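Retro notes, structure queue

What went well: the backlog is down to a handful. What didn't: a couple of records were mislabeled last round, so from now on we paste the full input next to the output in the thread. Example, using tetrahydrofolate synthase from Brevibacterium aurantiacum:
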Amino acid sequence: MSAGENAEQSDSQLVRVYASLLARAGETQIEVRLDATRRACELLGDIHQAAPVITVTGTNGKTSTARMIDAIVTAHDLRVGRFTSPHLHSVTERISVDGGPVPAETFVRIHDEIAPVLDLVDAELLAEGRGRLTFFEALTILAFAVFADAPVDVVVTEVGMGGEWDSTNVADAEVCVFTKIGLDHQAFLGDTLTEIATTKAGILNRSLDPSPAPNPVAVIGTQTDEAQEALDAEVERRQILALTEERSFRLLDRTRAVDGQLITVQGIRDVYTDIFLPLHGIHQAHNAAVALVAAEAFLSDEDKPLVLDTVAEGLSHVTSPGRAELVRTGPAVVVDGAHNPDAAHVLAETITEAFDFDYTVMVLAMFADKDVLGVLEELHRSADVFVVSEALDSRALGAHELAEAAREWVDEDSVLETPDLNAALMKAIDLANSSGATSPGIVVTGSLHTVAEARLLLGKEE
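Corresponding output:
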């Protein structure tokens, strides 16, 4: 069989497996439980205990921070398995080994090997009158199985939602990382930052006996006062070590550079100076500081800091697709998955700081269950014109409804409505090219689904 035929067969098998995963309850159909995921992992030989774990929770910045931790730990000659969500183009992106998506052949093989156990647990759940394993639960089990099969030296997991009952929490993480916590998924997590932070602090729980990590370290990025107070209370209740930004470590300096920035971080063991980070925005600099300290907590002892050159080597290779990512020039097109007000605020700051646009076309497509007005409040000052569209998803907010919402913030003539994202991009490019501006730019945002579609249309699906 030729290489092309092998690839075609692999793709068809991946389609089969992905379809079987999608047949399960979707990612918005949450089961507040850990026992189902734990049962499957135990039947598969305690795959959730096969390697030490670093877990990342928060509201924004989780994926970028997880990728940075992966890069730093990998630079220290350890093999890393990373589980993140959602994916942009292929479900295999969610499960990474050696810094890249697991091969489709491996994804399919491991799924088919664990399928009988998934079926067994499904049957047990149904017999108890409960829902069978969800998409995210099954994918979490698959990730742990891939990592055990590889095998890897360390697993970096990104919490899907919350923390306490998220299926990734079946593993007792040695290092528990908290990126900035904001309001999102209130239907599941609560309406206040205190409630949300308390639920996310559930990653500090120990569910294994004996636990491979009885005394976890909490690494906490900059928070609002309310979220910080809730995390402080949870840390104190458990009597564990907390390394908190501005108290235990800090971002000392950052300077804009070509294609990124130079950062200096006061870690817990040393000062790490002039590290090149090929990502834009102060939020990514803070994410890098958190990631560096998480790696310090995992890798180093009290008397030995990390090697600056090794840290710099790791971070120099970091990418974060769909996060303030420049995907085209002439005119410039930046894509960012901001889908809540906090993320939109960060995006607006990053556009101002990192890109010298003198005319900005904002292409926007969002989900109906998001805080649309809150996002528009943050973005409208950065846009000369909005081109609104509709995401290819059942949860999408209609283009006309989104356009009406945008007109509450800007002049009616500054909002253009398009039927789909392809039309939106064509209109945006035409507006940018005909603007007469010296440096026009297009920003595509509203959700990672919007970003994924835009990347595909612009030929950046890798």
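Agreed that this is the format going forward. Reviewer comment attached to the example: The first strand starts at residue 53 and ends at 57.
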